[in-house]
Amino acid sequence: EYTQLETGLTRIGFKSVTAAIINMAKHGAYTDRRRYVVVATKTPKDFEFPEPMVNFPGCKRVMIPADTVPPAMRARHYEATRMPAWHNDGFRSKKIGTVTRGDGSSGRQRQLHNRLYDPKFPMPTITSSYTYGGNKGSQWVRDDKGARQWTLAEECALHNLDSTALDFLLKQRPGDALGYITRSFPVAPLVALYKGFERCLRS
Predict the structure, then answer these.
(1) pLDDT digits over 58-87, tens only?
(2) How far is C-alpha 66 from the geometric centre of its chain's CA atoms?
(3) 175 — phi, psi (to 5°)?
(4) Which of 26, 30, 115, 140 is the Cys-Cys partner for 158 at CB 3.0 to 4.6 Å?
(5) 158, 62 in Cβ contact below 8 A?
(6) Residue 175's pLDDT band (boundaries 50, 70, 90)?
(7) What's the pTM value of the predicted model, to 2 decimals?
(8) Rounded to the nearest 5°, which phi and psi values hold at 24?
């Protein structure tokens, strides 16, 4: 389908068609979400995708202090991954365990959303799954006090959403708010793409 789209854009007269699958963590977001992006231009200068980061800075910079995390967002226990997979990609999420906190979600939902991740690496793609008092699609992260969930403000920060977006999301039901974040395109990578658009338009 992607190849057909690119071929079709060329056929209808675009001078340059550039496409790539972007890892958001390589362009300023805190999730390793990947998205296909295609840019078609008729400008003198062809579009160039932004240069990726060399090192991932870690998610701790968007995490609130461990002692301020609401107790309800913590799990008393988690099972560490017995043999962590060899992991040499700093821009890919790293699962380090499984949270053992029961809730009312189905068995499959628990399996999908009870995973614990290392904040030194980007978080996995956020999904819209949400159960009150249980697991949710932003998964679990380990801080200095153990396993815990992300707050809404932190989930916004993972996608580089600003205070205006947070104010809006705070007025929504928790599950709906997470859904909005899930469907958003992280802001930092989007800004980097827009800068590339501007360079083409100014050429």
Answers:
(1) 999 999 999 999 999 999 889 998 766 677
(2) 21
(3) -65, -40
(4) 30
(5) yes
(6) very high
(7) 0.89
(8) -60, -30
**In which residue are the tokens 């789209």 written?**
5
Minimal CA–CA distance to 31: which of 2, 69, 54, 62? 62
Element (H, E) at 22: strand 16-23
Q: List residues bridging with 41 in a β-sheet.
A: 16
**Mean pLDDT of all residues belonging to the chain:** 91
- Radius of gyration over every alpha carbon of the chain, rounded to an integer in angstroms: 19
Strands annotated E in 24-176: 34-41, 78-80, 95-99, 115-117, 140-143, 146-149
Question: What sections of the chain are H helices per DSSP?
Answer: 2-11, 107-113, 152-158, 163-170, 174-183, 187-201
Tokens of 110: 């628990």
Reduce the DSSP state of residue 8 to 3 states and report it. helix
Examine the pLDDT at 104 and tell me if it is beyond 80: no
Q: What is the percentage of the chain residues whose pLDDT exceeds 90?
A: 83
Backbone angles phi, psi at 21, to 5 degrees: -100, 120
| Mean predicted confidence (pLDDT) in 82-105 | 78
